[in-house]
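Whiteboard transcription, Tuesday session. T.W. wrote the structure tokens on the left side:
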């Protein structure tokens, strides 16, 4: 009798294993109908000829499997992730397989999405405004595609968004002032687009990284835009047309570490003492501007500054001796200015720990065999002209 009961129990246990949907190749429908409809529309909006046989999208076969069914041996092998109960799509992350097409507005039906990433493909057209319905989105990555049009003002609805990367596209228009509403945003990268206008009146308060390189932004770098950004560590605004004075307030941002403002039209930079500022500056890039005056001595006092570039500006006078005494400085680019006198001996010594360039200035005693003295200095006639015909030694 006991053996018979054990055999019945064994059969029941086996039936649970056999008929558990997660142990079948093709399980019953698990994913919400609205999510399946959205995924079908997403795939249909991509040119079939751009879907390679080895790609994620090639494995999306809605007639053979449910997107959230397990195991994923032959269908939906990548590109989607599902909630714990396998009913909702939570991540849509395409592989960089050269997909070409538009981003369907129906992607907004995937209301449980936390990650949307279609980077490094060939998507084109405007970013649909309906995308703002994805209120749980934490990361939106559309980098390196061909999206055009303006940045939808409705992005202000992304209250949970922490990372926004739409760099290397063809976005145009100005940055909406509504960006201040992105209260959770930590990383913003809109570099290498065709954006115009000035910085927003206010930037999101919780930013750690701000990258707007390679656009056509103009105006001054206003204190108001950065007011309250106590956590900001990285600022990359190079290759724009920002002009005017960069005030002390900028370097007083308490968490600032890396600054890249190269290739703009800045004419003046005010540097506070590191005791007033956070003192955590690691790298400063101010090359290819129109900065006039003397090379700022104060930079040498920042205890963590390892890289400084003010190349190809309009600096005059001598190279501060303090630069050669800095214990942290390892890269120094002052080439392409109108600096005079003899460079600090420690900078051009064969055993110098500082790399970079002091070339294309008006220096004396900068030997051609010294790495730091390349390229050669400016002709004497140009130097005299820069100093009104009276070149000081």
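and on the right, the sequence the group agreed on:
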């Amino acid at each position: 009798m006991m053996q018979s009961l054990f055999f019945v129990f064994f059969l029941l246990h086996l039936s649970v294993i056999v008929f558990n949907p997660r142990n079948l190749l093709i399980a019953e429908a698990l994913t919400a109908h609205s999510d399946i409809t959205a995924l079908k529309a997403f795939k249909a909006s991509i040119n079939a000829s751009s879907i390679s046989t080895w790609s994620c999208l090639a494995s999306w076969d809605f007639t053979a499997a449910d997107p959230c069914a397990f195991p994923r041996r032959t269908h939906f092998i990548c590109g989607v992730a599902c909630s714990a109960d396998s009913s909702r799509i939570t991540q849509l992350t395409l592989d960089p397989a050269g997909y070409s097409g538009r981003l369907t507005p129906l992607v907004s039906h995937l209301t449980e999405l936390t990650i949307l990433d279609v980077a490094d493909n060939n998507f084109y057209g405007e970013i649909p405004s309906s995308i703002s319905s994805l209120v749980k989105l934490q990361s939106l990555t559309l980098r390196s595609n061909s999206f055009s049009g303006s940045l939808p003002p409705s992005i202000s609805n992304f209250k949970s968004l922490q990372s926004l990367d739409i760099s290397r596209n063809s976005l145009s228009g100005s940055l909406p002032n509504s960006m201040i509403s992105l209260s959770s945003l930590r990383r913003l990268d809109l570099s290498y687009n065709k954006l115009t206008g000035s910085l927003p009146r206010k930037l999101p308060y919780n930013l750690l990284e701000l990258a707007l390189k390679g656009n056509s932004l103009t105006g001054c770098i206003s204190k108001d835009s950065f007011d309250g950004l106590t956590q900001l560590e990285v600022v990359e605004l190079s290759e724009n047309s920002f002009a005017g004075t960069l005030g002390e307030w900028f370097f007083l941002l308490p968490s600032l570490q890396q600054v890249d403002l190269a290739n703009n039209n800045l004419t003046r930079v005010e540097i506070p003492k590191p005791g007033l500022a956070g003192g955590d500056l690691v790298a400063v890039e101010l090359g290819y501007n129109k900065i006039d005056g003397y090379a700022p001595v104060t930079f040498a006092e920042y205890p963590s500054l390892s890289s400084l570039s003010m190349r190809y500006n309009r600096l005059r006078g001598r190279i501060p001796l303090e630069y050669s005494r800095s214990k942290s400085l390892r890269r120094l680019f002052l080439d392409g200015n109108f600096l005079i006198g003899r460079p600090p001996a420690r900078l051009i010594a064969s055993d110098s720990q500082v790399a970079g360039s002091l070339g294309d200035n008006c220096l004396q005693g900068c030997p051609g065999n010294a790495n730091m003295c390349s390229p050669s200095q400016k002709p004497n006639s140009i130097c005299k002209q820069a100093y009104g015909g009276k070149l000081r030694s």
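Someone added at the bottom: Residues 21-113 form one domain.
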